[in-house]
Amino acid sequence: MAVTAHHAPPVVAAAPPDPDHATIKLVGVGAAVLVAAAIWLAPTPAGLSLPGHKALALFGCIFILYLTEAIPLAVASLLVVPAATLSGITTVKGALEGFSAASAYLIVGAFVLATAMVKTRLAERITYRILLRIGSAPTRITLGVTLVNIALAFLVPSSTARTAILLPECLSILALYGTAGRSPFAINLLLTLTMTNATIGAGILTATVPNPVTVEFVAKAGGHTISYAEWLLYGFPPALLMTFATWGLIQRVFPPEVDARQAETDETIRANLDELGGMSSPEWRTLLVFGMVTLLWATQGLTGFDTTVVCLAGVVLLFLPKFGVMSWADANKGVSWQVLLVAGGGISLGDILLKTGAAGWLADAIFHGLGLAGASTLVVVVVVMLIVQYLHLIFVGTTAMATALLPIILAMADTANISPVALALPAGMIIGGYPLLMFYNTLPSIIVYGTGRLTVGDFPKVGVAICALACLVYALCAATYWRWLGLY
Fold first, then answer.
1. Domain extents for the chain?
2. Selected residue with higher pLDDT from 103 and 351
3. Which of 159, 274, 358, 442 is the most exposed place for a label (fewest CB within 10 A)?
């Protein structure tokens, strides 16, 4: 698909608000208030402190707001600060701790690096080269998209941005094959785009926001701060395995029905690559910065440099006179400030739950309610993975899900006398990498669903099996592979 110039959209009159949508939001706010009031007014449970009781009420309110999106997620996260302070749960400094967490700034730095990749069109060049090399038979194209997703996961920290980079190329390929509407090849290609994008994200620290959020919570719970290289060591092998398993299952469930059109497809991809011309100086400089950052991440154990510090140092280079490749206006467009605020507010809320004992009390109630007392580590991990996995059905987006659930999971690990990292690491990876059950679970899936080529039922036909397999794979990793590596 040839690259065309982007023009500003025409100015149109604002559409009137949807009364049904407004009513749903009002119901969500009302439900959040009622849940908070019900918990607040109930007698303080035995074994739970008064601040912990208040923290549970706050958690119930924010949880419902996250779930219903009755108000913007970023606003719900900001609500944590005044609510926690005015109710006497913590100080202003304590309520703001999540917004100053290292993981929050790692997210900002990773978004800026990704913006440079997209602005200089380096990410686009990598995409074309991989697709051209892999070949243009339908099965090879879907494998090529999978390989591009793997490559871009190292370069672009947003699954939505990765989808935005690849979707035009996928639609162009479908048009070339004459599949303008819904067809097995279209379903196959678009599901491959969004699902392998998600699964590989679990294996790379900076590929998706729940990963650094998981690192932050594990560190707060007494575990060490997992480095970029350590996350790659623990998470990349199972993520790579699951990514190819996902690609393979999609090929079986939705086998392509079209013949290869090698010459035409290669010509289109080559034309796009030719239009880019040779590697530009900004591309080389961006590649140099990213290579330096990646090398320092990978050698963190030798250098001792913090992951966030290295990322932010690399970001600064991208703005230097004569060397930089972007302006702040460019970077500002590429950073999702909503994600930053959701992560910051969620981390603050989780920290409050942990410090007041509310997370421990709730985890203990869940643990004994499920009859897990005395169960083996493997059984506990599998049960928690299944619960986390199928909670994707009621969550839209993975960042809010991670910040809401990880404090409770860490407290469950303490209750079960399991290393916090043994339970939280696979849970965080499941949250970030496997929101595959329904189209509304993540924005990338919503985007591909919006093309009109997919139906609601297409997602669970692949997602249910992959999600179940993921629970088993990550539970086995926690019980064997990671233990052998000395993780805990």
1. 102-334
2. 351
3. 274
